[in-house]
Hints:
Layout: E1 4-10, H1 14-25, E2 32-38, H2 45-55, E3 59-63, H3 69-79, E4 84-87, H4 98-109, E5 113-115, E6 119-121, E7 127-129, H5 135-141, H6 147-153, H7 157-163, E8 169-172
Parallel strand pairs: 1-2, 1-4, 2-3
Antiparallel strand pairs: 4-8, 5-8, 6-7
Helix pairs in contact: 1-2
Amino acid sequence: MEKISIIIPVYQVAQYLAACIESCLNQSYHHIEVILVDDGSPDESLRICEHYRQRDSRVRIVCTKNQGISRARNKGIQVASGDYIAFVDSDDTIAPDYLQHLYQSIKQTHSEVAVGSFYRIDDQNVYYFISRRSDLEQAKLERTYTPREFFQARTHSLINRNFEFLWGKLFKKNSLT
Length: 177
């Protein structure tokens, strides 16, 4: 079974971090490592990271001075031992079958990247499906793209919205390095 590395940059997110880490550790795809990159966070985030590292051997912590989210992610890539990489923002949570679904998509299509949709939750815990698309439209989008098709398809608003962030995707590691 191939390993998936989940990289979570951590900076001033103490109020959200436990829920984020729990959602990663509770995946139906179990062969994972969770890399928490503490980017010099001045709050209690590092203490929360330490708690989870002591509780679960799949959790790793990397500490850096504050250099921003991009450098924190790059540091995570450098230490990742997985065959695949997923990025999760520390104030987000992921569904229990998130990794399993993306991994199966990559395997079925022989792709290097799988892209998922996402939900937004408001202050009253109401879920909003961001991509709000019809089944027919979704069926058109769920396919394998050649590099040329991908860049041409980026003009489609739903594709562009899902591709502009690193989270919500599973990457074959060698495609990032």
